[in-house]
Amino acid sequence: MTAGAPPELDNAVWHSLTGPRSHLAERRGQAARFDRDVSVFGGVADDPGPEAWADLASLVGPGGYTVLFRRSISVPDGWLIEHQGRGVQMLAGPDLDVSVTGEAVPVPLGPDDVDEMVALVAATDPGPFERRTFEFGGYLGVRCAGRLVAMAGERLSCAGYTEISAVCTDADHRGQGLASLLTRAVAARIRDRGDEAFLHAAASNTNAIRLYESLGFTTRTTCDYALVRNVTGDTRPAGAPPAPHGR
Fold it and tell me: In the predicted model, is pLDDT for residue 126 greater than 80?
């Protein structure tokens, strides 16, 4: 773990839900979740006891689910982990180059670009993305012949750190440095506000990890992500929503 990093980053979803991103969230006691059309993520307090899990169960309802993302995840009786994976959390180092050079010009993305953003995510699978995810802010994209071919933006925010997320490039435009360009551009905006950038990558995604290391990010810690379902009183029909995956 990186020395001096704030402990809130071990449970960044919760501290975002109850801090800078609370306007996009619903909270009950020691549990909270984002509006479902903003993000699939939810969270519980740092050291969750029975009350925190009861609060989360009340939020999601019988048979309901959310996705937890924290340093380690285990669930009590009454909950089922339907999908789980490991990731790494990386922090921008002092040597991170946030200069933006080259022919490609990042442009701001917003509500008028949602259809293209959702389509790009569907084609590239950078991780969970909903139609209102752009409301986290800071989204930039690169267009080629008018078509959105790469993008990156922000997601979690807490303790003076803002997460870079949804970094993705259309398959026909990879190898042009667009992911690097957009990561630096989003990091520059974060620094301009007085925060520092961090991000997450699946532990198995060695290509992404190498890219971020080359830009000046260092691994702080490993983390878990899991789709968890409240099975107490579960009356849902057969089948379940797709599990989260991607970076």
Answer: yes
What number is the average pLDDT over the span 75-104?
Answer: 91
Please provide the DSSP assignment of the chain as one string.
--TT--GGGGGHHHHHHTTTTGGGEEEETTEEEE-TTT-SBEEE-SS--HHHHHHHHHHH-TT-EEEEEES-----TTEEEEEEEEEEEEEE-TT------SS---EE--GGGHHHHHHHHHHH--S---TTGGGG---EEEEETTEEEEEEEEEEEETTEEEEEEEEE-GGGTTSSHHHHHHHHHHHHHHHTT-EEEEEEETT-HHHHHHHHHHTEEEEEEEEEEEEEE-TT--PPS--PPPP---
For 103, the token pair is 């022919």
> Domains (ranges, CATH) in the chain?
7-88+223-230 (3.40.630.30), 90-221 (3.40.630.30)
pLDDT in tens, 40-66: 999 999 999 999 999 999 999 999 999
Is the Cα dihedral 26, 222, 73, 11 positive or negative?
negative
pLDDT of residue 235: 64
Would you place residue 237 in the very low, low, confident or very high pLDDT band (cuts 50, 70, 90)? low
For residue 244, pLDDT over 50 is answered with: no
